[in-house]
Specification:
alpha+beta; 11 strands; about 30% strand
Length: about 300
Protein backbone atom coordinates (compact mmCIF):
# COMPACT_ATOMS: atom_id res chain seq x y z
CA UNK A 1 0.00 0.00 0.00
CA UNK A 2 1.25 3.53 0.79
CA UNK A 3 4.09 2.69 3.18
CA UNK A 4 6.35 -0.18 4.09
CA UNK A 5 5.51 -1.66 7.50
CA UNK A 6 8.46 -3.53 8.99
CA UNK A 7 8.45 -5.20 12.44
CA UNK A 8 11.68 -4.31 14.21
CA UNK A 9 13.89 -6.61 16.23
CA UNK A 10 12.81 -4.71 19.34
CA UNK A 11 9.54 -6.37 20.45
CA UNK A 12 6.42 -4.25 19.91
CA UNK A 13 8.02 -1.68 17.61
CA UNK A 14 7.40 -1.24 13.88
CA UNK A 15 9.10 0.86 11.23
CA UNK A 16 6.77 2.71 8.85
CA UNK A 17 8.65 4.16 5.89
CA UNK A 18 7.89 5.67 2.50
CA UNK A 19 9.50 7.66 -0.29
CA UNK A 20 8.15 9.81 -3.11
CA UNK A 21 9.29 12.52 -5.51
CA UNK A 22 7.90 14.41 -8.49
CA UNK A 23 8.33 17.40 -10.78
CA UNK A 24 7.42 20.99 -9.87
CA UNK A 25 3.74 21.85 -10.12
CA UNK A 26 3.58 25.46 -8.95
CA UNK A 27 5.61 28.59 -9.62
CA UNK A 28 6.37 29.40 -5.97
CA UNK A 29 9.56 27.56 -4.88
CA UNK A 30 8.73 27.78 -1.16
CA UNK A 31 5.26 26.30 -1.68
CA UNK A 32 6.72 23.62 -3.95
CA UNK A 33 9.00 22.58 -1.11
CA UNK A 34 6.04 22.39 1.28
CA UNK A 35 4.03 20.36 -1.22
CA UNK A 36 6.88 17.87 -1.64
CA UNK A 37 7.12 17.33 2.13
CA UNK A 38 3.34 17.16 2.60
CA UNK A 39 3.12 14.62 -0.22
CA UNK A 40 5.63 12.18 1.25
CA UNK A 41 4.27 12.63 4.79
CA UNK A 42 0.78 11.69 3.56
CA UNK A 43 1.85 8.08 3.12
CA UNK A 44 2.57 7.91 6.85
CA UNK A 45 -0.64 9.74 7.71
CA UNK A 46 -2.63 7.22 5.65
CA UNK A 47 -1.52 4.66 8.25
CA UNK A 48 -3.23 6.70 10.95
CA UNK A 49 -0.01 7.78 12.63
CA UNK A 50 0.88 11.42 13.25
CA UNK A 51 4.49 10.56 14.01
CA UNK A 52 7.41 11.19 11.69
CA UNK A 53 10.72 10.58 13.41
CA UNK A 54 12.88 11.54 10.46
CA UNK A 55 12.69 13.12 7.01
CA UNK A 56 15.26 12.99 4.23
CA UNK A 57 15.05 15.35 1.25
CA UNK A 58 15.67 14.31 -2.36
CA UNK A 59 16.53 17.09 -4.80
CA UNK A 60 17.43 17.15 -8.48
CA UNK A 61 18.87 20.49 -9.69
CA UNK A 62 18.47 21.21 -13.43
CA UNK A 63 21.68 21.43 -15.45
CA UNK A 64 20.28 24.45 -17.26
CA UNK A 65 19.80 26.53 -14.10
CA UNK A 66 21.96 29.62 -14.08
CA UNK A 67 23.96 30.30 -10.95
CA UNK A 68 21.46 33.00 -9.97
CA UNK A 69 18.47 30.70 -10.52
CA UNK A 70 20.10 28.00 -8.42
CA UNK A 71 21.00 30.43 -5.62
CA UNK A 72 17.43 31.80 -5.46
CA UNK A 73 15.21 28.77 -6.15
CA UNK A 74 16.97 25.94 -4.33
CA UNK A 75 17.15 27.58 -0.86
CA UNK A 76 13.44 28.48 -1.08
CA UNK A 77 12.46 24.91 -1.97
CA UNK A 78 14.54 23.60 0.94
CA UNK A 79 13.02 26.21 3.24
CA UNK A 80 9.48 25.16 2.26
CA UNK A 81 10.28 21.48 2.77
CA UNK A 82 11.74 22.22 6.21
CA UNK A 83 8.75 24.41 7.11
CA UNK A 84 6.36 21.51 6.51
CA UNK A 85 8.66 19.16 8.42
CA UNK A 86 8.62 21.54 11.39
CA UNK A 87 4.82 21.66 11.28
CA UNK A 88 4.78 17.86 11.25
CA UNK A 89 6.93 17.82 14.39
CA UNK A 90 9.76 16.16 12.50
CA UNK A 91 13.21 17.15 11.30
CA UNK A 92 15.15 16.97 8.05
CA UNK A 93 18.43 15.24 8.86
CA UNK A 94 19.88 14.81 5.39
CA UNK A 95 19.11 13.52 1.94
CA UNK A 96 20.59 13.53 -1.53
CA UNK A 97 21.12 16.30 -4.09
CA UNK A 98 22.10 15.62 -7.70
CA UNK A 99 22.47 17.55 -10.94
CA UNK A 100 19.66 16.42 -13.22
CA UNK A 101 18.21 17.25 -16.67
CA UNK A 102 15.05 18.53 -14.92
CA UNK A 103 13.95 19.61 -11.46
CA UNK A 104 12.91 16.86 -9.03
CA UNK A 105 11.92 17.18 -5.39
CA UNK A 106 10.78 14.63 -2.82
CA UNK A 107 11.82 12.83 0.29
CA UNK A 108 11.86 9.81 2.58
CA UNK A 109 9.66 9.75 5.71
CA UNK A 110 10.19 7.35 8.60
CA UNK A 111 8.25 6.65 11.79
CA UNK A 112 8.80 4.12 14.57
CA UNK A 113 5.50 3.12 16.18
CA UNK A 114 3.94 0.72 18.63
CA UNK A 115 1.23 -1.48 17.14
CA UNK A 116 -1.51 0.60 18.77
CA UNK A 117 -0.27 3.82 17.12
CA UNK A 118 -1.29 3.08 13.54
CA UNK A 119 -4.16 1.68 11.46
CA UNK A 120 -3.65 -1.30 9.19
CA UNK A 121 -5.03 -0.54 5.72
CA UNK A 122 -6.96 -3.79 5.19
CA UNK A 123 -9.78 -3.89 7.77
CA UNK A 124 -12.65 -2.16 5.92
CA UNK A 125 -16.09 -3.67 6.50
CA UNK A 126 -19.39 -3.73 4.65
CA UNK A 127 -21.48 -0.84 5.96
CA UNK A 128 -18.51 1.52 6.33
CA UNK A 129 -18.66 4.94 4.73
CA UNK A 130 -15.89 6.51 2.66
CA UNK A 131 -14.59 9.93 3.71
CA UNK A 132 -12.38 12.26 1.65
CA UNK A 133 -10.49 15.08 3.37
CA UNK A 134 -9.44 17.33 0.44
CA UNK A 135 -11.30 18.31 -2.74
CA UNK A 136 -10.37 16.94 -6.16
CA UNK A 137 -9.29 18.92 -9.21
CA UNK A 138 -5.71 19.98 -8.45
CA UNK A 139 -4.31 18.74 -11.76
CA UNK A 140 -6.89 20.71 -13.73
CA UNK A 141 -6.40 23.86 -11.64
CA UNK A 142 -2.63 23.75 -12.16
CA UNK A 143 -2.97 23.13 -15.91
CA UNK A 144 -5.61 25.83 -16.36
CA UNK A 145 -3.30 28.29 -14.62
CA UNK A 146 -0.50 27.41 -17.04
CA UNK A 147 -2.88 27.87 -19.96
CA UNK A 148 -3.38 31.53 -19.05
CA UNK A 149 -0.01 31.98 -20.79
CA UNK A 150 -0.86 29.67 -23.72
CA UNK A 151 -3.52 31.30 -25.94
CA UNK A 152 -4.30 28.20 -28.01
CA UNK A 153 -5.13 26.14 -24.94
CA UNK A 154 -6.86 28.99 -23.12
CA UNK A 155 -9.30 29.21 -26.05
CA UNK A 156 -10.64 25.75 -25.11
CA UNK A 157 -11.79 26.79 -21.64
CA UNK A 158 -12.31 30.57 -21.69
CA UNK A 159 -16.06 30.22 -22.25
CA UNK A 160 -16.58 28.25 -19.02
CA UNK A 161 -14.15 29.89 -16.60
CA UNK A 162 -12.71 33.36 -16.10
CA UNK A 163 -9.07 34.25 -15.51
CA UNK A 164 -9.97 35.29 -11.95
CA UNK A 165 -11.70 31.95 -11.30
CA UNK A 166 -8.66 30.08 -12.62
CA UNK A 167 -6.36 32.08 -10.35
CA UNK A 168 -8.57 31.35 -7.34
CA UNK A 169 -8.71 27.63 -8.20
CA UNK A 170 -4.92 27.54 -8.61
CA UNK A 171 -4.33 29.21 -5.26
CA UNK A 172 -6.83 26.86 -3.61
CA UNK A 173 -5.11 23.84 -5.17
CA UNK A 174 -1.66 25.06 -4.15
CA UNK A 175 -2.61 25.64 -0.52
CA UNK A 176 -4.50 22.32 -0.36
CA UNK A 177 -1.48 20.47 -1.71
CA UNK A 178 0.79 22.22 0.80
CA UNK A 179 -1.49 21.34 3.74
CA UNK A 180 -0.57 18.33 5.86
CA UNK A 181 -2.97 15.43 6.33
CA UNK A 182 -1.90 15.29 9.97
CA UNK A 183 -5.26 16.47 11.37
CA UNK A 184 -7.12 13.72 9.55
CA UNK A 185 -4.56 11.14 10.68
CA UNK A 186 -4.90 12.26 14.29
CA UNK A 187 -8.60 11.32 14.25
CA UNK A 188 -8.40 7.94 12.53
CA UNK A 189 -7.84 5.84 15.62
CA UNK A 190 -10.27 7.87 17.72
CA UNK A 191 -13.09 7.29 15.24
CA UNK A 192 -12.32 3.61 14.59
CA UNK A 193 -11.06 3.90 11.02
CA UNK A 194 -10.70 0.56 9.28
CA UNK A 195 -8.52 1.48 6.27
CA UNK A 196 -7.15 4.50 4.43
CA UNK A 197 -5.00 5.67 1.55
CA UNK A 198 -3.93 9.06 0.25
CA UNK A 199 -5.26 10.20 -3.12
CA UNK A 200 -2.46 11.07 -5.53
CA UNK A 201 -1.36 10.18 -9.05
CA UNK A 202 -3.89 7.45 -9.88
CA UNK A 203 -6.91 9.65 -9.10
CA UNK A 204 -9.72 8.99 -6.64
CA UNK A 205 -10.99 5.85 -8.39
CA UNK A 206 -7.53 4.40 -8.96
CA UNK A 207 -6.61 4.70 -5.29
CA UNK A 208 -10.05 3.57 -4.10
CA UNK A 209 -9.75 0.48 -6.29
CA UNK A 210 -6.27 -0.28 -4.98
CA UNK A 211 -7.46 0.04 -1.38
CA UNK A 212 -10.58 -2.08 -2.00
CA UNK A 213 -8.65 -4.93 -3.60
CA UNK A 214 -6.25 -5.13 -0.65
CA UNK A 215 -8.93 -5.69 2.01
CA UNK A 216 -9.08 -8.89 4.03
CA UNK A 217 -12.73 -9.27 2.98
CA UNK A 218 -14.21 -9.10 -0.53
CA UNK A 219 -15.56 -5.57 -0.73
CA UNK A 220 -16.69 -2.98 -3.24
CA UNK A 221 -16.09 0.74 -2.63
CA UNK A 222 -18.98 2.69 -4.17
CA UNK A 223 -18.36 6.41 -4.72
CA UNK A 224 -21.44 8.55 -5.36
CA UNK A 225 -20.22 12.08 -4.50
CA UNK A 226 -17.22 14.02 -5.83
CA UNK A 227 -16.09 17.20 -4.03
CA UNK A 228 -14.28 19.30 -6.65
CA UNK A 229 -12.59 22.71 -6.54
CA UNK A 230 -15.00 25.35 -7.85
CA UNK A 231 -15.26 25.69 -11.66
CA UNK A 232 -12.93 22.75 -12.31
CA UNK A 233 -15.81 20.44 -13.26
CA UNK A 234 -16.83 22.73 -16.12
CA UNK A 235 -13.19 23.23 -17.07
CA UNK A 236 -12.64 19.48 -17.23
CA UNK A 237 -15.74 19.00 -19.38
CA UNK A 238 -14.53 21.66 -21.79
CA UNK A 239 -11.33 19.66 -22.23
CA UNK A 240 -13.17 16.50 -23.29
CA UNK A 241 -11.67 13.26 -21.95
CA UNK A 242 -8.20 14.71 -21.35
CA UNK A 243 -8.33 14.72 -17.53
CA UNK A 244 -11.05 12.11 -16.77
CA UNK A 245 -11.98 14.01 -13.61
CA UNK A 246 -15.55 12.74 -13.38
CA UNK A 247 -14.38 9.25 -14.29
CA UNK A 248 -12.11 9.30 -11.23
CA UNK A 249 -8.72 9.14 -12.92
CA UNK A 250 -7.56 12.76 -12.84
CA UNK A 251 -4.23 12.80 -11.01
CA UNK A 252 -3.95 14.59 -7.69
CA UNK A 253 -0.79 15.61 -5.84
CA UNK A 254 -0.68 15.63 -2.05
CA UNK A 255 -4.41 14.93 -2.08
CA UNK A 256 -6.62 14.11 0.86
CA UNK A 257 -6.99 10.89 2.78
CA UNK A 258 -9.66 8.43 1.63
CA UNK A 259 -10.82 6.70 4.82
CA UNK A 260 -13.19 3.79 5.42
CA UNK A 261 -14.84 3.99 8.85
CA UNK A 262 -18.07 2.95 10.57
CA UNK A 263 -21.07 5.06 9.55
CA UNK A 264 -21.82 5.73 13.21
CA UNK A 265 -18.44 7.43 13.68
CA UNK A 266 -18.44 9.55 10.52
CA UNK A 267 -20.31 12.62 11.79
CA UNK A 268 -18.02 12.91 14.79
CA UNK A 269 -14.97 12.66 12.55
CA UNK A 270 -16.29 15.33 10.17
CA UNK A 271 -17.06 17.74 13.03
CA UNK A 272 -13.72 17.37 14.75
CA UNK A 273 -11.82 17.52 11.48
CA UNK A 274 -13.42 20.87 10.65
CA UNK A 275 -12.71 22.16 14.15
CA UNK A 276 -9.04 21.17 13.88
CA UNK A 277 -8.34 22.19 10.29
CA UNK A 278 -10.94 24.84 9.46
CA UNK A 279 -11.73 22.82 6.33
CA UNK A 280 -14.48 20.43 5.30
CA UNK A 281 -14.28 16.70 4.70
CA UNK A 282 -17.03 14.75 2.95
CA UNK A 283 -18.73 11.37 2.97
CA UNK A 284 -18.31 10.35 -0.67
CA UNK A 285 -19.50 6.75 -0.71
CA UNK A 286 -19.96 3.42 1.02
CA UNK A 287 -18.50 -0.05 1.35
CA UNK A 288 -20.47 -3.11 0.23
CA UNK A 289 -19.94 -6.86 0.25
CA UNK A 290 -19.20 -8.32 -3.17
CA UNK A 291 -17.80 -11.32 -4.98
CA UNK A 292 -15.60 -9.10 -7.18
CA UNK A 293 -13.53 -6.62 -5.12
CA UNK A 294 -12.89 -3.17 -6.54
CA UNK A 295 -14.20 0.37 -6.67
CA UNK A 296 -16.77 2.14 -8.85
CA UNK A 297 -18.17 5.63 -9.32
CA UNK A 298 -21.93 5.56 -9.75
CA UNK A 299 -23.54 6.95 -12.89
CA UNK A 300 -24.13 10.66 -12.43
CA UNK A 301 -22.37 11.15 -9.08
CA UNK A 302 -23.33 14.22 -7.05
CA UNK A 303 -20.81 16.98 -7.67
CA UNK A 304 -19.98 19.11 -4.62
CA UNK A 305 -18.50 22.38 -5.83
CA UNK A 306 -15.97 23.43 -3.19
CA UNK A 307 -15.79 27.20 -3.16
CA UNK A 308 -12.39 28.67 -2.50
CA UNK A 309 -11.67 30.69 0.62
CA UNK A 310 -8.93 32.54 -1.27
CA UNK A 311 -9.69 35.87 -2.91
Amino acid sequence: MDSALIPLSIPGLNLIQTTDFFYPLVDDPFMQGRIAAANVLSDLYAMGTTKCDNLLMLLGIPKKFSEKQRDVVVPLVIKGFKDAADEAGSQVTGGQTVINPWFLVGGVATAVCHKDEFVMPDKAQAGDVLILTKPLGTQIAVNAHQWLEEPDRWQKIKDVVTEEEVECAYQEAMFNMASLNKNAASLMLKFNSHAATDVTGFGILGHANNLATHQSQKLKFVIDRLPIIAKMTDTAKACGIKFQLLQGYSAETSGGLLIAMPAADADGFLREFEQLSGNSAWIIGSVESTTEPGAVITDGPQIIEVKTKIH
